[in-house]
Fold this protein.
Amino acid sequence: MRPKNSSSHPLLFSLAITVIACSQAAGQPALSTRWSADVNPDAPLPEYPRPALERERWLNLNGRWQWAPADEGDGPPFGRDLARSVVVPFPIESSLSGIGESHERSWYRRLFEVPPEWSGQRVVLHFGAVDWEAHIHVNGRLVGSHRGGYDPFSFDITDFLAPAGPQELVVHVIDPTDAGEQPRGKQIRNPHGIWYTAHTGIWQTVWIEPVHPDGLASVEIVPDLAMGVFKVKATRRSPGPASNADTITATVYADGERVQRHQARPDAWFVLKPGKPRPWTPDHPFLYDIIIEVERAGEVIDSVKSYAGLRSVSIGHDAEGRAVILLNQEPVFQVGPLDQGYWPDGLSTAPTDEALRYDLEITRQLGFNMTRKHVKVEPQRWYYWADRLGLLVWQDMPSGGPYIGPSDPDAIRDPHAARQFESELSAVINALRHHPSIIMWVPFNEGWGQYDTARITELVKRLDPTRLVNSASGWTDRGVGDVIDWHVYPAPASPPPESRRAAVLGEFGGIGLPVPGHMWKTDHWGYKGVRDAEALTRLYESYMQRVYDLRRARALSAAVYTQLTDVEIECNGLLTYDRAVIKADPVRVAAVNRGDFSLMPPPPTITAIVSTSEHQPQRWRITTDRPAPDWFMHGFDDSSWLHAPGGFGTPGTPGAVVGTRWDTPSIWARRLFDLDSVPAGELHLRIHHDEDCEVYINGVKALSLANYTTEYEDHPIPPSARAALRKGPNVLAVHCRQTRGGQYIDAGLVRIEYPPVPTGPSR
């Protein structure tokens, strides 16, 4: 998601942002989640971090490490204590890390001991992820370096270890954040708007494990639903040919019962046929457990536990020949939230595994069958829970580099930056390809860093031909990939149906509702503000009704609502940032997400008090020259202003009904209206504005709205503005400013009467 940019773009690619002031008291401490209290700083996140390739013996290195900021050119702090302590694996900017500061360079140091029973094994050091550049030293020697903030990496440190006693591990981290072109997602050094606090350093689990010299380096398991089999390749760590005495034994279990045992040669593909196929779906996320062993002369020298889901994803056609997404050869309509994966206490790192699982559980409980992991990659356990809970995943590649607009050509990337992006993209795909929950890769979002789109799309397809590729989510489509993806705010819309690519709505919604006591900062924003939970629920229901209409009318295959939770100053989540409040009615949200509208109340009765120009032009007094300071007051003389029909703007502006052309930077408009009596009931300002505007009723400010909309919207007026209405003549005054792109202004007053919410056994 992105605010309005300097490039004008078509109707359905516009965004609307309403600035919402919140009543949070100054000086309130930063938010935390209920899971913060469960974090043991000496042993945080104790779970095995890689469920797809799990070994019985391992040692978790999470916990308190020594830490210090670093300057360029500093030598490693071998053999000396550092002044401060950091809790790994929380990024240093987070409160859970114990640091709460941002530094481009820093040192991590800790001592550890290798269990004596690991003698004769290779010792492998694993990092789930370090953002962004890491140099790893063991006992004063450089083991290796890694660049990439979102992919796991490991080093065999056996030859660097002392024969016994404490071993010294020192990590030097460098992270330029938005000063560089590396993939970084929403991170920025100066957080604001849709840009979030950076997360630097070790932010996923660190561990060591013993592995036989000829043990397994990787296990690839590829489902083939059409044949009812898994294609498997177990690759050894040793680079040379396998011994004739070495055998791979794979055992498959279904519900704890062994259904197949197969022996094969190492480093070669083989097939597992687990009896009658049991497909993986969101409603029935069945997973087979698989144990892979390396045997030598009858002795097991390595053993790992894994699992797999049998499913397929492809593009098919409906009865009218329109492309649709298929899961297991059946159409699947996907509804999911945009999931940013940020936490107020841990930033990029969930406080506990329970917290990590909660986001996925609440997503399912809210009736979603899909989630879009937005320009961030999660720890492996997040995908493990998605596999277990039955949640389809669209996986974005974190963005970085220059931005291009909808009508711009692909960016020309610096060759070094392009190589780094492709290296990290490949590493992320290889790390996550095991998970059946992931059905689509998204290399580019809204033109951020988008270059060589067709080639990158082909690269992703070549790396993983079993999944769909969404080449450019947003508005920079190049006609390639498996889907055409639009972003539309706030109300949903759909790309036109195609015969080759499925139509998806990659982002919409963004309804903002700040909840005092559960906010990151005082000033928050959403794409469209509402006043309470009931208004949020009703508007969400109406949006989902449109989504399902688009499914029927335009073969829409998926819709992604912005967003699951509030994040920092964004208050457009279905949940608050601390996950303490579900803002909308969860039962009604779950119902409409599944296409059940039986709990949805009838639409409100809307009565025009002061009509807009939507259906018939209304006459205003307007000027584009700056008027006197009291221009909005009731008694101001506007007789010299032009008397013209509304609305005012430029043709082609999204949702505009232009009666009089306005193409200057500012317009001031006044309209007299008579009231026989002050109307009762809920009064709203009905307005379509592009861009910022202020509205006054009889000299009292009613609203101040930022950015722009793509359609007429209703906003409740405050008590002070309502109290200004009087019997007889009244004046509605509007000032609108324009900077770039389309422009438009029109306004009126309506009374909205809401019918009662239906009740029944299901509630």
The longest strand covers residues 299-308. The domain at 605-753 is CATH 2.60.120.260 (Jelly Rolls). Confidence is low (pLDDT under 50) at residues 2-29.
